[in-house]
């Protein structure tokens, strides 16, 4: 199965969600996004920041990470966390990354996700990576 690359803010919600998946993962650290290189296919898990009408939805660390052509060349899909209280911008970081990197937006979950979200992502990742190998 492929790699999960993720960024988690101080709330650690995304980190807790990824830990529950029990899958191979690498974390983009706040100060290390510029020097962090991934050399294999991955799915990105990213929180959505509330931002001004959607501006600033993608964390700056993730933008820096994806601005590296090598990293961007290995992204295969995106999963976004969000807060439904944000209305139309719920999970917006996933939409933005999906469009800019031309990869599928695979799933979105609220805050740190439910047990159903964990099960859905685990199952979805198995199917996704199996299909990706074909």
Automatic annotation (TrEMBL):
<protein>
    <recommendedName>
        <fullName>Protein NrdI</fullName>
    </recommendedName>
</protein>
<comment type="similarity">
    <text>Belongs to the NrdI family.</text>
</comment>
<dbReference type="InterPro" id="IPR029039">
    <property type="entry name" value="Flavoprotein-like_sf"/>
</dbReference>
<comment type="function">
    <text>Probably involved in ribonucleotide reductase function.</text>
</comment>
<dbReference type="Pfam" id="PF07972">
    <property type="entry name" value="Flavodoxin_NdrI"/>
</dbReference>
<dbReference type="InterPro" id="IPR020852">
    <property type="entry name" value="RNR_Ib_NrdI_bac"/>
</dbReference>
<dbReference type="GO" id="GO:0010181">
    <property type="term" value="F:FMN binding"/>
</dbReference>
<dbReference type="InterPro" id="IPR004465">
    <property type="entry name" value="RNR_NrdI"/>
</dbReference>
């Amino acid at each position: 199965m492929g790699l999960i690359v993720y960024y988690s803010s101080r709330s650690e919600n995304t980190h807790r969600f990824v830990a529950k998946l029990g899958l191979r993962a690498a974390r983009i650290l706040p100060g290390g996004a510029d020097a962090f290189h991934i050399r294999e296919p991955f799915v990105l898990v990213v929180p959505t920041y509330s931002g001004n009408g959607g501006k600033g939805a993608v964390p700056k660390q993730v933008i820096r990470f994806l601005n590296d052509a090598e990293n961007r060349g290995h992204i295969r899909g995106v999963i976004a966390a969000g807060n439904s209280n944000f209305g139309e911008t719920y999970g917006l970081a996933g939409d933005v990354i999906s469009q800019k990197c031309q990869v599928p937006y695979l799933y979105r979950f609220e805050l740190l996700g439910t047990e159903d979200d964990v099960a859905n992502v685990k199952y979805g990742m198995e199917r996704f990576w199996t299909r990706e190998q074909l």
